[in-house]
Each structure stands twice: as structure tokens, then as C-alpha cells.
Amino acid sequence: MSNTQYRLGNFSAFSVASLMGKPKGSGEWTKTALTYIYNKAAEVLTGIQQEVTSYELQHGIETEPIARAFYEELFNVSLPEVEGLVKNNLSGCADGVLPDKIVEFKCPVNNRIHLENLLLKLDTFKKTRKEYYYQVQSYMYLYDRDLAHFVSYSDMFVGANKMSILEVPRDEETIKQILERVALAEKEKNKILAKLK
User: Fold this and answer.
1) Residue pair 153/67 in contact by the 8 Å Cβ criterion
2) In the structure, what pLDDT confidence band is assigned to residue 3 with cuts at 50, 70 and 90?
3) Residue 144: which of 91, 99, 81, 104 has the closest Cα?
4) Which of 36, 52, 57, 130 is most buried per CB count within 10 Å?
5) What pLDDT does residue 99 have?
6) H or E stretch including 147?
């Protein structure tokens, strides 16, 4: 989706994991979380989103249409473009939304990561891929779905191994934790902005 204005000043499903950690010392926020909150405050003040780019992200953008077509053929479905949403200062745009699920595509550059994704089970996903677990839970909240397909695709692999699909059920406890942290981050952001008035 090219129009990302819905993300301006809001905390995104893509990055919400950065708000979830607790600092080792005192205080509410890790350094990573505070950096993210300050970035969101700066967006409010400037009206500008500073996009993060990397080779890995660019590869994902370029490969996702191929992964999408592979998924559509596999399940005999159509995944139209999706509009981004904002609820309670949490924003996001899932890669695909079907009547019963959201679909999130990852197209790793590293073949080892795709191999790990092929072997991934739900309990391991929750522990070792927390950033993605929080992301798909956020999308299920935003789009009011009870299931996510976490999809990994690599055209370096052959046959069925090109794609892995992990079914991730909605987790109300995790969604509650995400919304609590986003609400606290919004308060912190507003405190920062209030210092400039």
C-alpha cells in the first residue's frame, strides 16, 4: 500500500514489539522503545514519516507479489489490496485479509531463515519470533479476525518448500498486553509533545 498516512504518529503493528520489552533497570521503557516513541512524536510535529530502508526490506517488497500469487493459486483465493487501519493508536496494514483470517508474508533473503520458517511450530514462533507474533496479533485485532497465516516464501527453494504457512490463532491476552503498551506509549508521546507547548 503506497498511502501510509494512517501510520503518521500512530504505533504500527510492524514495530509494536519495540514497545513490549521491559528495561533491565528502572523506568517504564527500554532505549529502543523510547527511540520509537520519540520518532512518533517527531512525526506529529513534522507531518513526515522517516522510512526505514534496507536490502532485506526491499527484497521483501519486490518478492511479495510472487509470494502472493503462489498463495492465491495454492488456496484458490484472491487477496486484494488492503487499506491500512488505526484503532486505539495502533496502526497497520496486513498483507492480505480474507473473511476468516489475515495473511502476513515474509520473504527472507537468508535461506537459513526460510528453512527455519519451514520447520517453525506455534510455540517456537511465540518465543523466538516475538516481533512477528505481536505483528500478526495486532493485525487480527485491527481487522477483527481470529486466525492468521504467517507465510514465509523463498523462490530459492523448490516445490512445496518454496512456502511455509503457520496458522496462528488469536490470543486475547497478548492483544490486551499490546493495547496496554500502546496506550502507555501514547501517554509518553503526549508528555513529550506537551513540553513544547
Assistant:
1) yes
2) low
3) 99
4) 36
5) 96
6) strand 147-153
In this structure, how many other beta carbons lie within 10 angstroms of the beta carbon of residue 195? 7
Backbone angles phi, psi at 144, to 5 degrees: 55, 55
How many residues would you count in the chain?
197
H helices within 47-80, ranges in order?
A: 55-75
> CA 177, 180, 186, 192 torsion: positive or negative?
negative
Q: Does domain 5-194 have CATH number 3.20.20.70?
A: no
Cell numbers standing for residue 59: 527484497
Q: Is the Cβ–Cβ distance between 36 and 89 less than 8 Å?
A: no
Contact 104, 136 (CB under 8 A): yes
Enter the C-alpha cell of residue 135: 505483528
Rounded distance between C-alpha atoms, residue 151 and residue 114, angstroms = 10
For residue 92, the cross-strand partners are 85
| Mean pLDDT across 130-156 | 97
pTM of this structure: 0.93
Q: Read off the DSSP letter of residue 179.
A: H
